[in-house]
Fold each of these.
Amino acid sequence: MKNYFEDEGNYELVKMWRRDFHRHPQSSWSEFYSTGKIAMELEALGYKIYQGEDVIDPERRLFLPDREILDYNYNLAIENGIDERYIIKSKGGLTGVVGVIEGDIPGPTIAYRFDIDALEINEDLSEDRKAVREEYYSKFEGYSHACGHDAHTAIGLLLGKYFSENRKKIKGKIKLIFQPDEEKLSGAEAMVAKGILEDVDFLIGGHIGANLFELGSIAFDVENILAVTRGEVEYYGVATHSTGRPEQGKNAILGACAAITHLNAIARHGKGSTRINVGKILGGTGYNTIPDYCKFYLETRAETKEINRYLQNRAEDIIYGAAKMYDLKFNYKIVTNVEGGENDEYLIEKGIEAVKEVKGIKNIKSKLKMNASEDFVIMANDVKKRGGKSIYVVHGTNVDGGHHSTTFDFDEKVLINATWFYASMYDSLINN
């Protein structure tokens, strides 16, 4: 294993893959380029490939782009070199891939999960940036890999190559899960609904950076993977002329503004972290018309599902109260609900054992507060309910900019560190 991951050729290969994904970013349910590239590479490595409705429940997808956008991105992938054979099953927003390889010796089913979606953010094209100098910046305007999922995808492919070339070591079954739509938090649910984890004994996932910004470090005891709820609030009023008949109007925007102001005044909880945000508001038709409709997008996050429930209860009271104040009708629809999570102690212990074999990792962070949400938890909980175990690892790396920024980049040596760790973790589990 040591010789494999110290081989300069494998480092150059995983770096090439990462930069290829970075050049071709596509967001939730439109990740056709990455899907096609992953499927092609895994098939060449001898994996059995599952795609489309074999791995995605269409009814569980949220925030699905319009057909026009999906078709545009599908054709864009083909124009940029993807063989349509590898994405035809994904047409219409059924992106993602599961690759399966089995050994000749009985053993557990171990799954690794890698998210593949990019963000709807333009990348900074300043000439002093490394991505620009070395020409791996985003080719797709309006999109960039500003969170590191290009790294995760490349790590998954190198891990797949390692297992393919060391097939005699495999005991049982390995599943490589390349998940779409992590950012909008419905990709995991759509895959879980198809039963792809029903036979999984151990589930392993992770993220580069994520509050651990030192190359050569790693965290197993990851805390504050926050529960998150996202909802859409609509207020319905009565439209009238704002000067001629203002007394007959019922202003939906005023009701929404009252709700938003008081939502941000909810008392924080003494037993854990909380977050609340309104990220988008829509309403009104002009200067002189009292608006009869307003909609806003609300998100709560909390350290536990109980604290998140507290936020939601208070939010519902405020939304209702604002409607009463302004004599409005309202609708509050929850569109995403993801629980918080924690790692299994057994896998934390195995991780500490496994990392000793990884040359590039010298520092184990005892505890790390991630302070973010991750729909990996949906997969983890699905595995745990059948007696399986899961772990979410943070791989330390130096970062330029920050996650979700226009200048995000990282030290690519983390690609080898993370892949080497995942391979070592496999050995630690099967040789118990």
Amino acid sequence: MRCALFGEQIKAYEDILKPTGKYEISRAPIGVVDDQFKFNLEELPYQMTIGQQTVVQRLNPEAGPIIPMYQPLSTIPRTADPDSKFDVVVVVLFVEEQPRMITNSRGRESPVREIVVTDTRLHEL
């Protein structure tokens, strides 16, 4: 799943989210992503946005197993309600090195940093 940091959140999470780190992310809105912002059309049709109310906590690998009450990414509805928020445990696969500027639907430019995450389920090959 794609995850995005916008504006002030880019700097706030610069030293926190790292590739291969495991994180608990709570209160993160998940919404439909426009095709124009996808890297390829095979991507999932939604993205998680880390905002001011989102809580991101790095998990301690020495703390032992977590008894999850978390939702697997595959169970998030493909038709996102704008008010939906989900609690997930994810592994960060990729963090865009530098923020880039995008133009929103109102024609204003905003900085964005892309992050790619996956859940912690084992995948059979």
Amino acid sequence: MQVQYGFYTDYNPVSYSVAQESEPQRPMGYEPDLVAAVEALSGGRLSFNTLAIGNPFSGIWLKVAQEPHDMVGGGITALPERTRDAEGRPVIRFGVGHISFSQSLLVHEGSAIEHHEDLTSEHHVGTYRATTGEKRLLELTAIIDSAGFLRAGTQVLLADGTLLTARPPNSESALRIAAGTGSAAITTRIRLTPPGDDQPEVLYFESDDELLSALLEGTVESWRGGRSATGLPLATYRDCG
């Protein structure tokens, strides 16, 4: 039996690929190694055909409901809301979890930012759309409430230049951000600007390389994610909540 296995290419060391000219992207990392071990232990009864899935990360789990994928991996947090499509229909299911990790802020060594409480409107934080890292950042900074609704007055810049302003959470046009399916009107968000002086501006990126470059160049002062970097003039701080 052959299984079509889609693997995310930009989550080192969990699931990634090193670009090679004129060659298929070879899966690397913890999850691809697990899949290779399952194939080896099957004694020839099971094989996996690997299919590379690049950026953006948001929504890659729903590819399981699309041809030709039978399964998808890439450090995807198993959340009930991620099992449903945009119409709220259950279309996928998760297997047994096998990784646990904590979220952190990645900042320059020596930065005055040590906790989320230190972030103000003078700071810029980079993250990815529809991820657990984004959701946790926005919760800890009170940009969204516990249900995911944006704080009233928050400005949302979209990729096409459209600027939206969030309405109160109890209004019909309230905007919601989730680690699964949020408000369709803001799926292409590239910047959030909250109304409070005690909240940072949030910028969105498509890849680790893009975000890390922004951090090193000073476009953002911190990077919110579930990973850490080594060998760089950076430090990680675990969140406090």
Amino acid sequence: MRRLDSTQFPVDEAVTAAGLVVLDTWMVVNYSTKYGEERLPPSAKTPSFIRLVVDVEMFCQTLWRPPTPDFDMSSLPNVEQLQSLSPEEQMARWEAAGVKREALQCRLLYASQINPGGWAPAAVVRTMARREYPHFLRRISEFVVGHTAEKALKF
């Protein structure tokens, strides 16, 4: 997982077309490898086991709706400078700048490619993905909301 900061990816306007301010951006990329495959036990190399090849990319942004359209963005804390503070101190700085949990949103882009190694027809894989993908998003959303609802904001 990697945090994409403004020094690596500078933007002129960190405001979306809908007027939301981009506070934070993270990206995760995972690719299957064949590392360690030679160490598998002989029982794992039988036809009853298959090795899936999975590539997953997830891009997340924390978005905030300012209290007023003419809000002074220079009053927002610098995320990089807050990293050394405790979560409680970070939360106090964000709240002092007007950033409240109720005004936050998350933009999540998720993409994956799964290759079952020829053991399942492509049509079956697509059908399963269409059915399971909404369940996955619902479960991960419920997990995140339940896990973070009572905790201080972290960026």
